[in-house]
Amino acid sequence: MSALPRRVIAALSIPPSVGLAVFYVWPLLTLLFRAIDGDAVQTTLGRRATWEVAWFTLWQAVVSTLMTLVVGLAPAYIVARFNFRGRQLLLGLITALFVLPTVVMGAAFLALLPDGMNQSIAAVIAAHVVFNLAVVVRTVGPLWEQLPSDMEGAAATLGASPWRVFTMITLPLIRPALVAASSIVFIFTFTSFGVVRVIGAAGTRTLEVEVWRQAIQLGDIRTAVVLSILQMVMLAAVVMCSSRAQRRYSQPLGLEPSARRMPQRGSERRQVALIGFTSFAVCGAPLFALAARSFSTPSGWSIAAWTQLGRTEVRPGIRLGIDPLDAVRNSVENALWATLFAVVIGALASLAIAAARNTGRFLDVGMMLPVGTSAVTIGFGMLITFDQAPYDWRAEWWLVPIGHALVAVPFVVRATVGVLRSVDPQLHAAAATLGASPTRAWRTVVVPFLWRPLTVGATLAAAISLGEFGATSFLSRSDSETVPIAIEQLLGRTGSLLQAQGYAMATVLAVVTIALVAAVDRSHQLRTLARSTVNGPN
Amino acid sequence: MTRRKPASAAVALMLVVGACSSDDASTSEPAAITLVTYDSFPDAETSMNEALQAFSSETGIAVEILVAGDTGTMLSKAALTVGNPEGDVMWGIDNTFLSRALNEGIFEPAAMPVGAELPPEFTQLSPDGLAVPVDFGDVCINYDLAWFADADIKPPTSLSDLIDPVYSDLLAVQNPATSSPGLAFLLATIDEFGDDGWQDYWTALRSNGVQVFNGWTESYYGSFTGAGGSGRPLVVSYGSSPTAEVIFAEPARKEALTAVIESTCFRQVEFAGILAGTEHPNEAAQLLEFLVGETFQAELALNLFVYPTNSAVELPQEFIDFAVVPESSRSVGPERIDANRSNWIDTWTSLVLG
User: Fold this and answer.
1) Which structural domains are found in chain B, ordered by start?
2) Residues of B with Cβ-Cβ distance to A315 under 8 angstroms
3) pTM of the model
4) What architecture is domain A6-535?
5) Which residues of B touch A21 (CB under 8 A)?
6) pLDDT (tens digit, 9 = 90+) per residue, A449-487?
């Protein structure tokens, strides 16, 4: 991978660096200089409560991450290795759980929990696990799917038990992706906001919740910014370690385009069926509860919420000013732009990171930072930075998709870099020996491996944008209500019809997400098929 | 890494981005102003928006609605942008946030004083008139009529009743640190029991099994039996909740299923004002005048479920049927709230959640 000329690598890394500098570093520094001083740092860090919150944030994130990894490997395995009926639906379900607004999923999850579990730490961690399964499945999956199956086959032939094959062969091979997945899950659970607020007991606080509370409820921006920095420092340390580990574990593999097949032996079928059904049950339940709530009224089942969904006049003469169709249109537009930004920037960044050993690390960690920065901080930073002509962008529509892309780029990068690093250098050498120029060799050898992870990254980016993550909810908007905002508005008002409509919209969002994931996977399969028939297997 | 190239790329990026958004540049026309508001304010299609359009066609001043988030977010953002605001007029700062808003200096005096007759008990909250009261409502304990009838228990009638063992494990409230009705209810108890008494009251409430939720939605729709939950028949909610429950009931309904306990009500008054640093002070003043005028005020009840401050306005029939304006609602002065909010919440947290 290091065969690319230096200036090409530099050129590749410019757009992502500039994007990061303009839309993240600049707003962040502006807010820092405006809000922070030695006094605020001293008082905030001197408070016992600060460290209690920090400690809670850390341990719940560690536990949540470990559990997510353990639980997530099973569905990741069957989805990566086998073709089975319902595979795309399962992937879609898992992704939908990840992206649906936490207000909505929290309520659905609460409805499922037994009474004693309500408002407990265990419930928060369980929700973290279920909501973040997608990260493990979708980050580990692409690598696992393309692992050469001959090594595992050889070990099995030599008499190794399936468990031994997994621990001795598969696990070390997928370790880079596992590390990548765990760092993403860690970041998400470390900065958990919605889940903690909706499911956690009153008073349960992560640093992210505390930043919000200080900045919004108490109006203390200084303390909020100090806490936000503390959060970033703790996260940066973890991400640095994980990025180093990911590099250390990555090794060239003879990746195959896709080794997915139908389950064959009886035991294999049983295994896939068992894991498949369990995953469906676990992931389907909250979504089912969501859909059920859209039909439920105090006096029984009703489809009124659905029949009235497209109508803006809820009662004769009364309109809410919430237009579901308009909201869907706005959300889809945002998602398209966010995906475009995220994929272009993410692809360039991935290539630069994979090609450059040292400078790559800065870009790698840099790209992750926005995900680990509190949403309030980014949102308020943008507010006070982009406020002067010629860059008075506060109310510009495109600031929202850019905000979404900031969060989505690391997913594209993580999904892509792992695969790129694993491209066998011998292929490259062979191409060079056959007389290809370095750029040409790189194009023919490396680029074909890009499509799979980029497709995955694009799906996640679109999904993230549909679910309205983070900072953008702190940007002001004008006539551009998105689906998650409309849902939150409906659920925040009194009236059983409005509640049911909120859940109906949430169901729509879930279905759109599932359809999107299925469509992308399907088009990808068709293209791979076309390519392999035209060019023969890579 | 080269250091010079990013600049040119940034310029290129700005050009691209600028090209995409050139059709939005028309917002800087002289007669267009922006009304900054909270997220439950409808930004299109309702009769409120039609009223605003009528204002525009009458005066030639176009009004754009900018939604800035919930009230707390809106205020924090206004405080960060004093002198270079996101819009010209702000709607929706309530009395629990009013003092912070005035101290941060987010409002400037109107170019001409507001002419409408407004109740002095509200206008005196902002003595220099920087913030103009535009609507009010109450946060009250709501109860489930059927539940109390079935259980053959008399519903509580006062805050003190709630610590009676008869009502143990029946009340759901919100965390004042994260919820605006939660804070209002804490203030109601501070008003009733005073600086030295409210702590003991909450200790007693805790022993009597009060359940605390982070937000209104989780408590009202997750627990309140009057709204289909299976938890508690008493919940802190809005004075207008019983009315909204009837109007937005599915299937339609004629009778209220819930009611409020009047003596527990805390008054929330919302204010509007002209954002300091506006480039259109005259147009902004005209809009502010319109916002408290009869035409616009008449639309508030059924759109925002609050009462108009302009007493010349008649309330719609649905509202009169089910809503009660408490004879006297509780209140705590804005300065006192602002000075003590943080301490009160910390004390409450250690008493009730500690």
Assistant:
1) 28-136+269-308 (3.40.190.10), 138-267+325-353 (3.40.190.10)
2) 247-248
3) 0.86
4) Orthogonal Bundle (1.10)
5) 6, 10
6) 788 788 878 888 888 888 876 667 788 777 778 888 888
